């Protein structure tokens, strides 16, 4: 009965979101307050209905209710309870339900944030958000219904794809979806501003926390996905420029640009049209990602079922929203009031540069991802655009951008002074050079690009820190004053420092991969393998059975300069129900580096094939991402309003339209 | 009944959520709360900045004036509020209520009726396992498996395990268990048929040669065994021997009792085969009538291709049929038409080539 109630709740959610689309839009156009007021309760109602449906499906999974087709196809009574729950979104239908759930959650949050938003903006935003929700609910109910029943119920389920039976499935999709779907709110705000025909600092202030939330979760989701692929697939890499990865990376680049342009808009009332465009582009890219991943155009672990009808449906949604939004943009954007002017050398000038670089980087990823697909569908020719393309195009754009981070952060608003900024950064730059030299000394050389990148990473970190120091420490100030200023510094400034330092940490982690070592070899029990500074001794290979899989475990003893430092286990699993093998890499974190062992085939003479890697400082890649996200969160807690302080002499530039 | 009451109450709650704001009395006019609180927040922020020393007191007044200017611009730029009372507003609200009242039930019930199964009970794991035994089936299976690992010659164990494997979807293991049961417990018709069925499941529904052999062996011992007869008929259907399959299924249906559970399945097969069997019906006609019928079909095909064009394989079939029927002149004419039609298509012309060759040979060889 609960399953049917969940199904009905989903249809009710569709009905409510249609009401939520029509009445507030009508109310906003007729300027009728009661009609606009419908948006809030309708959004909360939609959320309650979708949440109920979602919980009903979770309940069916937890109790192994095999009268539900979706549960039969993706669950098994022997699966641990955690994977029964995470299995809810480990399939096409359930993941789309999670998508709609988060969509409705964001709408409900906007509905409850009543006092920070003007009524009309809120009504229009919720109306647009409801249209997106309605489209996806329709998709769910018509072509991907998670509540389809089977009668009679089979006795046992078909189990979940073994690669997905991992703690990663419990974390990665929800994080990524909050990020992906969170951008929809920025999109809805942009569409609302276009419909209303006006946009101001209040709008920027309203959008900022949502974009920031989406960005924080997108950052964490991508980092988590990268780490999961790293330890589960057994290839030893953490980023493959795979189309599925790019599909999440493009919205991230757009969201990063949006984040920075919103700051300019809030503070200086400028870059309005561009910000609107970025919000539209950001959500368009996340819809594109959904289409690429869910339609079966790409084959990967994310593609749960290839069904042309579903692909066509998502393509329809994609074309409708992207096309509609750009049409709206072309029609209404010229009506928007343009904002203030500013000097090219200034904080806002640097942020424009940042946006240009990010947009270009996003475009190169876009081309590298879609060109092979377009070529294949037009001519049938298969080409592979891999790391070499992205290294040749993406890196040259990113390196100058990274170099500009500390400089932009040091420039003042409105009118900066390049020389002053350079002087203030001298210390950071000198420290970074020293760090680069130290690396050369310790490693006795290495690839030039890697050494430069390490210096760059340190430059970003020191630059971020030095900017904060100069802001709290006026020349000759007493310690008490410094403390007061540091405490008084807005949390968003601390967030900026933290997030930029996180970028520096990621850059160092990536650059350090130039020093990783790899060995592919055969080893017999008792034999040794040397990787980097560590030595692995194969102690033995033994079988083990657990729940729904059997595995063959190889146990190694790791030693450093003849001293044992711990055991490491790598295994190959066979999931009995699906008869599918998986490789579980053995990973030992030593300091900031990782020892990574992945098993290959067994040989007749008892030897096992293995790939062993020593990856120094590799964890910095993910730690840096977490630092970035933490910076975003810190900034999110700052509900401060940025007020530009107009000075009399440039007053005209600040308010040109009057 | 309970379910429908719950549906009704959920729907009621949804409708109320929408009607509630429509029925509320209105607040007074003027700029909305959001705009006012935004201005207050901005002024408070400026004062805080002054207190922290980020802003000089002289700048404070300028900044506050700037905030005020922005606010005035916002209020002036916004559209005037339409009157909350009055005929138009009232009519608008009534229309909105009507939309909510009609749309919510209509949309939700329409979409629910597409895929909903209100009559189906849930089948959670706890309900599916028998309560009296309170035994974890998986554990029982594991125990029997462990026992059989030590005593693989215990036929009774295999016999118990085999059908459980089938229900658990482990058909591969089921085939092994049925084979062992057959070997250890002795040959009989039912065991043969069960083994065959497991083999069919294991090959994804295809009646393989091994499976067919088992069914035939079962029928040799017990000619009326329904399961074996069903699969033999299915084998005929899968081999394309439509007529034989239809005959076997009909015979099986004729012998069935009134409430055998497999009767609907057999009926489905019969209906499908009877639909697809006109060619077969023609084959049973007396010679003269049969040729007449075939000529009629070929003439029909010729007329259709003449009128509509058709694909190359249809033309090839037409020419070949006419050759088989001995209608040489008509075949030649059809061939030249086909060549004319596909003159730009090299692949199609190549397909026509062997037919042209056959027609150029003396007529004696073309007899069927």
Automatic annotation (TrEMBL), chain A:
GO terms for MF: heme binding; heme transmembrane transporter activity
Domain Cytochrome c-type biogenesis protein CcmF C-terminal: 315-639
Keywords: Cell inner membrane, Cell membrane, Cytochrome c-type biogenesis, Membrane, Transmembrane, Transmembrane helix
Assigned GO CC terms: plasma membrane
Transmembrane regions listed in the UniProt entry: 6-26, 38-62, 96-117, 124-142, 175-195, 207-229, 249-266, 273-292, 312-331, 352-374, 394-413, 425-442, 448-465, 493-515, 617-637
Pfam families linked to this entry: CcmF_C (PF16327), Cytochrom_C_asm (PF01578)
Chain ranges of the Cytochrome c assembly protein domain: 89-295
Primary subcellular site in the record, as a coarse category: membrane
Places the protein is found: Cell inner membrane
Superkingdom, natural source: Bacteria
Membrane topology: Multi-pass membrane protein
Biological process terms in GO annotation: cytochrome complex assembly
Known role: Required for the biogenesis of c-type cytochromes. Possible subunit of a heme lyase.
Family named by the database record: Belongs to the CcmF/CycK/Ccl1/NrfE/CcsA family.
Protein name: Cytochrome c-type biogenesis protein CcmF
Source organism: Chelatococcus asaccharovorans
UniProtKB/TrEMBL annotation, chain B:
TPR repeats: 155-188
Keyword Ion transport: no
Recorded superkingdom: Bacteria
Record's subcellular location: Cell envelope
Biological processes per GO annotation: cytochrome complex assembly
SUPFAM superfamilies named among the record's database cross-references: TPR-like (SSF48452)
Transmembrane segments: none
Pfam families in the cross-refs: TPR_CcmH_CycH
Keywords: Cytochrome c-type biogenesis, Repeat, TPR repeat
Domain Cytochrome c-type biogenesis protein H TPR: 134-254
Record has Repeat as a keyword: yes
Cellular component GO terms held in the UniProt record: cell envelope
PANTHER family, A to Z: CYTOCHROME C-TYPE BIOGENESIS PROTEIN CCMH
NCBIfam families attached to this UniProt entry: cytochro_ccmI
Name recorded for this polypeptide: Cytochrome c-type biogenesis protein CcmH
Organism from which the protein derives: Chelatococcus asaccharovorans
């Amino acid at each position: 009965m609960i399953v049917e109630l969940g199904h009905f709740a989903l249809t009710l959610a569709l009905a409510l979101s249609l009401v939520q689309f029509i009445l507030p839009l009508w109310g906003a156009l007729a300027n009728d307050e009661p009609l606009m007021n419908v948006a809030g309760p309708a959004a909360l109602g939609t959320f309650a209905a979708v949440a109920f449906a979602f919980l009903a499906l979770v309940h069916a999974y937890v109790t192994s209710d095999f009268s539900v087709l979706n549960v039969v196809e993706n669950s098994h009574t022997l699966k641990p309870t955690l994977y029964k729950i995470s299995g809810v979104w480990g399939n096409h239908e359930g993941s789309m339900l999670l998508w709609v759930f988060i969509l409705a959650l964001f709408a409900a949050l906007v509905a409850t944030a009543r006092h920070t938003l003007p009524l009309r903006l809120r009504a229009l935003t919720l109306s647009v958000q409801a249209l997106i929700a309605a489209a996806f609910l329709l998709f769910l109910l018509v072509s991907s219904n998670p509540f389809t029943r089977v009668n009679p119920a089979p006795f046992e389920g078909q189990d979940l794809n073994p690669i997905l039976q991992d703690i990663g499935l419990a974390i990665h999709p929800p994080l990524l979806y909050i990020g992906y779907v969170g951008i929809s709110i920025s999109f809805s705000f942009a569409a609302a501003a276009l419909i209303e025909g006006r946009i101001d600092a209040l709008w920027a202030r309203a959008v900022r926390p949502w974009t920031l939330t989406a960005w924080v979760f997108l950052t964490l989701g991508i980092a988590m996905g990268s780490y999961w692929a790293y330890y589960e697939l057994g290839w030893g890499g953490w980023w493959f420029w795979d189309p599925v990865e790019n599909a999440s990376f493009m919205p991230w680049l757009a969201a990063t640009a949006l984040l920075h342009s919103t700051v300019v808009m809030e503070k200086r009332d400028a870059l309005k049209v561009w910000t609107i465009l970025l919000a539209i582009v950001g959500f368009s890219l996340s819809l594109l990602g959904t289409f690429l991943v869910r339609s079966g155009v790409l084959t990967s672990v994310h593609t749960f079922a290839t069904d042309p009808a579903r692909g066509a449906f998502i393509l329809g949604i994609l074309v409708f929203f992207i096309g509609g939004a750009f049409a709206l943009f072309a029609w209404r954007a010229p009506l928007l009031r343009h904002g203030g002017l500013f000097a090219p050398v200034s904080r806002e000038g640097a942020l424009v540069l940042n946006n240009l670089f990010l947009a270009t980087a996003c475009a190169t990823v876009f081309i590298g991802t879609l060109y092979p697909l377009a070529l294949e569908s037009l001519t049938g020719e298969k080409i592979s655009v891999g790391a070499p393309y992205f290294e040749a195009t993406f890196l040259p754009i990113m390196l100058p951008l990274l170099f500009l981070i500390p400089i932009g952060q040091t420039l003042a608003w409105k009118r900066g002074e390049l020389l002053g900024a350079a002087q203030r950064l001298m210390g950071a730059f000198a420290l970074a050079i020293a760090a680069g030299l130290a690396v050369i000394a310790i490693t006795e050389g290495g690839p030039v690009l890697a050494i430069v990148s390490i210096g760059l990473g340190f430059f970003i970190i020191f630059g971020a820190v030095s900017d904060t120091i100069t802001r709290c420490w006026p020349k000759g100030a007493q310690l008490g004053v410094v403390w007061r200023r540091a405490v008084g510094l807005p949390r968003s400034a601390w967030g900026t420092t933290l997030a930029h330092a996180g970028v520096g940490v990621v850059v160092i982690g990536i650059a350090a991969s130039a020093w990783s070592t790899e060995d592919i070899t055969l080893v017999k029990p008792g034999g040794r393998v040397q990787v980097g500074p560590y030595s692995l001794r194969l102690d033995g290979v033994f079988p083990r059975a657990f729940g729904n899989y059997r595995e063959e475990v190889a146990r190694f003893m790791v030693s450093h300069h003849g001293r044992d430092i711990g055991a490491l286990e790598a295994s190959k699993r066979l999931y009995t129900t699906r008869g599918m093998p998986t490789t579980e890499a053995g990973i030992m974190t030593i300091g900031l580096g990782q020892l990574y062992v992945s098993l290959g085939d067994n040989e007749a003479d008892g030897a096992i094939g293995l790939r062993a890697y020593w990856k120094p400082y590799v964890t910095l890649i993910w730690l840096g991402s977490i630092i970035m996200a933490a910076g975003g969160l810190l900034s999110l807690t700052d509900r401060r309003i940025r007020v530009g302080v107009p000075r009399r002499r440039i007053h005209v530039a600040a308010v040109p339209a009057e | 009944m309970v379910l429908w009451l719950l549906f009704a109450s959920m729907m009621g709650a949804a409708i109320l959520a929408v009607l509630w704001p429509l029925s509320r009395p209105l607040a007074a006019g003027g700029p909305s709360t959001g705009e006012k609180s935004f201005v207050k927040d901005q002024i408070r922020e400026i004062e805080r900045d002054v207190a922290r020393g980020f802003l000089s007191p002289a700048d404070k007044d300028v900044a506050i004036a700037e905030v005020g200017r922005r606010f005035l611009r916002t209020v002036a730029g916004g559209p005037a509020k339409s009157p909350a009372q009055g005929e138009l507003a009232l009519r608008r609200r009534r229309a909105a209520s009507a939309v909510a009242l009609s749309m919510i039930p209509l949309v939700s019930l329409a979409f629910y009726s597409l895929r909903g199964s209100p009559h189906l009970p849930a089948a959670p794991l706890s309900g599916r396992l028998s309560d009296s035994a309170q035994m974890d089936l998986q554990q029982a299976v594991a125990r029997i498996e462990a026992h059989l690992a030590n005593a693989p010659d215990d036929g009774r164990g295999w016999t118990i395990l085999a059908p459980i494997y089938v229900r658990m979807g482990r058909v591969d293991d089921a085939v092994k268990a049925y084979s062992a049961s057959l070997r250890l417990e002795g040959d009989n018709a039912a065991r043969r048929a069960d083994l065959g069925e497991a083999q069919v499941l294991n090959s994804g529904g295809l009646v393989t040669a091994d499976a067919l052999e088992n069914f035939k062996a079962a029928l040799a011992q017990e000619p009326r065994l329904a399961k074996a007869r069903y699969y033999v008929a299915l084998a005929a259907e899968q081999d394309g021997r439509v007529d034989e399959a239809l005959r076997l299924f009909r015979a099986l249906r004729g012998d069935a009792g009134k409430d055998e559970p497999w009767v609907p399945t057999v009926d489905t097969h019969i209906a499908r085969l009877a639909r697809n069997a006109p060619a077969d019906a023609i084959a049973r006609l007396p010679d003269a009538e049969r040729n007449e019928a075939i000529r009629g079909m070929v003439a029909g095909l010729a007329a259709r291709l003449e009128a509509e064009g058709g694909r190359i394989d249809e033309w090839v079939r037409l020419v070949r049929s006419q050759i088989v029927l001995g209608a040489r002149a008509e075949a030649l004419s059809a061939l030249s038409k086909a060549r004319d039609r596909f003159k730009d298509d090299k692949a199609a012309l190549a397909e026509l080539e062997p037919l042209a060759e056959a027609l150029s040979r003396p007529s004696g060889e073309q007899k069927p």
